[in-house]
Amino acid sequence: KIAAMSSADPNQAAKAAQEIMATYESMKSEVRQYMLKIQELDADRNEHSLVVNTIKDLDPNRRCFRLIGGVLVERTIKEVLPAVKKNLEGVKLLTLLPRSSHGLFFSFFSDPLNDTKTD
């Protein structure tokens, strides 16, 4: 497209190239945002897994504390464990969505054979 335009109008070809670069930079920025969100969700998943593995074998009537919306509440393990497991499943699902819906784009930027630098 750009090659055909370059013979007709150099200004139009330059403008098309700038639009392509702007789109590329925008998409690259979006991928960075997705990657940061995935890292955040992975950290949440690891934290939830640690909690589940720590309290699953304890006495279900034992008191524990849970942070809900910035408020520390006292509950029992039998009340907290199902909620934490449910949250863990939700976080696991959320970590899969961006990877599957943007898999091709992510693979382009993370492909070691790709010479294009992302930084």
TrEMBL record:
One of its GO terms (biological process) is protein folding. Gene3D superfamilies: 1.10.287.370. GO terms for molecular function: unfolded protein binding. Keywords: Chaperone. One of its GO terms (cellular component) is prefoldin complex. InterPro entries: PFD2 (IPR027235), PFD_beta-like (IPR002777), Prefoldin (IPR009053). It comes from the Eukaryota. SUPFAM superfamilies: Prefoldin. Belongs to the prefoldin subunit beta family. This is Prefoldin subunit 2. It comes from Lotharella oceanica.
